[in-house]
Amino acid sequence: MTKDVGTTVGSPLGDWPLFGLTDDVRPVLRSELDSNRPVALVTLFAAEGGAPRGVGAQMLVTADGASGYLSGGCVEADIALHGRAVIADGVPRRLVYGRGGPIDIRLPCGGRIEVLVERVVPGDPAAARLLAFAERRTPALWLTDGEKRMCVAEDEFEESALAGSLFARRHLPRQRVVILGSDPVALALAGLAAQTGAEVILNRPNGPVAPPPFPVEYVRSSPTEALAAARPDPWTAIIVALHDETNDHEALVAALPSDAGYVGLLGSTRRLPQKLERLRAAGLTARDIQKLKAPVGLPLGGKAPWEIAVAIVAGLIKTASASNRSTIVLGHPKDAGLDLGGHDDKGSAAKASERVVNASPRERARPAFDHAR
Fold first, then answer.
1. Contact 85, 61 (CB under 8 A)
2. Of 166, 179, 52, which is closest to residue 112 (Cα–Cα)?
3. With contact defined as beta carbons under 8 Å apart, do 176 and 203 qualify?
């Protein structure tokens, strides 16, 4: 009989997998390191067959909890135990689940995943750079062999940097959603987007002083001023829902020529031709106007505020998923003199891990990295 250690009552992660509601582990990483607490960073770097999260998924294990998940609850509790061992002894683990993994833990999807568990301590230079890049909204690459790591801006990356690293993990800026509006749909969208983990800015020109009851940034300036302050980039989505001809036009004139990766307009399509003509008259190019999603969101057919919000968020997810490149670039760990059990020509990087995770639970807790002396 196999067991599912991710969701069992009394597991080291609690009775309900709330840890899995976090996708981007960087905010928790910042909080833990700022509080002078070491953590274990877990990265899924290789997968075969079905893998719910896919290569690049991450989990952060702390002394008393975790954030993120890798395989739908099948292995997270076991990973948390290894993570806490790594926090304690500082020695990285490389683990295999599924084919070649421990016989008492199976992936119901029939796949196989390989993960790296590495300790990150307060003051770690690579972690500091990763968080600084996140603050500046700069794409970055995390290169690691489990013990030695570095973080570089993506536009500074050179292939030679992979020598000695097991992989490079790409980190994009956090998804940001700027919503201009104050009707129930705008509020529902702000709440739902925040729940997905996005950074949300809600602009209500001349709105009340009291902020909305959601964890969002609230600004009361004009649409032009709000968007200028937001400094849109390719990871910014702008949703215009002001329902006022003048304010909608002002917002679109500022949004469409910007670097925002997504600009949507909420409202009736009946007057859309006139809106577009007015944008052309204002000097916007065909390329600018082609960026506009109107009507915004996927055509799910909903009419209620939450239904429309779901359609818009679904559209954002679809667009982001279509544009993202691979998250993981495999490296060349042999160049660092590491004995990892051999990267064979077929890409299997797990023999060292298989020696460990096929053994008894006590032996499985030993490091999976054997460094050449």
1. no
2. 52
3. no
Contact status, residue 260 vs residue 233, Cβ threshold 8 Å: yes
Average pLDDT over residues 226-243: 97
CB 221: neighbour CB atoms within 10 A? 15
Which helix (H) or strand (E) element contains residue 271? Answer: none
Cβ-count burial 348-360 (b if 16+ within 10 Å, e if not) = bbbbbbbbbbeee
- In 3D, which of 66, 316, 59 has the Cα closest to residue 200? 316
Tokens of 318: 């679809």
Q: What's the token pair of residue 180?
A: 């201009």
What distance in Å separates the CA atoms of residue 366 and residue 335, rounded to the nearest whole number?
Answer: 24
Phi–psi pair at 54, nearest 5 degrees? 85, 165
- The predicted pLDDT at position 11 comes to 64
Top-level class of domain 176-323: alpha beta
CA distance 218 to 226: 10
Out of 48-52, 260-264, 330-334, which region has the weakest mean confidence (pLDDT)?
330-334
- Contact (CB, 8 A) for 311 and 239: no
Tell me the DSSP string of 217-242: EEE-S-HHHHHHHH---TTEEEEEE-
Judge whether 180 and 220 are in contact, CB under 8 Å.
Answer: no
Q: Indicate whether 337 pLDDT > 70.
A: no
pLDDT at residue 205, rounded to an integer: 95
In this structure, the strands spanning 112-120 and 66-67 are unpaired
Q: For 100-137, how does the pLDDT look when each residue is reduced to its tens digit (9 = 90+)?
A: 777 567 676 667 899 999 999 999 999 999 999 999 99
CB 200 within 8 A of CB 190: yes
Q: Where are the domains of the chain?
A: 18-172+326-371, 176-323
Per-residue pLDDT, averaged over 71-92, amounts to 91
Pairing status of strand 167-171 against strand 140-144:
antiparallel
User: Pick from 153, 155, 199: which is nearest to 179 by CA?
Assistant: 199
Question: Given this model, what pLDDT does residue 220 score?
Answer: 97
| Residue 346, pLDDT score | 34
**Six token digits for residue 94:** 């490389």
